[in-house]
Amino acid sequence: MCTKRRCGVLIVDSDVVRVECQLRAGELACPSCQVSLAPWGHGRPREVRGDLGARLFVRPRRSRCSGCGVTHMLLPEAIWPRRADAARVIGSGLEIAALGLGHRQVAAHLGRAEGTVRGWIRRFRGQSEDVRRYFTVALVALADDPVMPDPSEGPLSDAVSAIAAAHRAAAMKWASMNTVSRWEFAGRAIDGRVLTCMPSAS
Ligand SMILES: [Zn+2]
Question: How far, in Å, is the centroid of ligand 1 from the Cα of 39?
Fold first, then answer.
């Protein structure tokens, strides 16, 4: 288990200009202590694989909390920490796995290495109950008349369904959420920890 918040990552809007304005205006809060984050240089540039052969080039902004002094990397919602593939690519793989396909079939469908895809599925399955519970609570909070997804093939499928249901409820509540994929929404909700240990459910 990783220690809570040691990673120092905050998932933010994919609009770089908007994030820069928010950062300079003190509108981004430290996830640990809620004090404003201030600009603190940049992280190393990185390249992330999107779908259909697309490449995303990202130079993440770094920030520092003026309260607790912890630095936080600001990652756009299109990517998750320590992943070479975009959130929606990994998410698509998890959705295919939720249909009951094995990692080899998912890897063939996405054009990714089998070992990579096996890792995604294993990690997600390992915390699928935490994910399901988190997004079920989010669904209840977001929807006026929440409709719970039916139990499905197993824990992995149930977790995928819970994310989809919470995203639908968020899109009903906020029109801007319609342009954000369910996996970007999920990453933003839990600091990109869709495949790593979830924030504690406090
Ligand atoms: Zn802080």
Answer: 13
Q: What is the per-residue pLDDT for 130?
A: 95
The pTM is what?
0.89
What residues pack around ion ligand 1 (CB closer than 5 A)?
Answer: 30, 32-33, 65, 67-68
How far CA 90 is from CA of 104, 149, 176, 179, in Å, comes to 14, 22, 23, 18
Residue 171 CA, ligand 1 centroid: distance in Å: 30
**Distance from the alpha carbon of residue 31 to the mean position of ligand 1, in angstroms:** 7
Instruction: Report the DSSP beta bridge partners of residue 48.
Output: 56
| DSSP, residue by residue, 41-88 | EE---EEEE-STT-EEEE--EEEEETTT--EEEEEETT--TT-SB-HH
Question: pLDDT of 151-188, one tens digit each?
Answer: 787 999 999 999 999 999 999 999 988 889 999 999 99
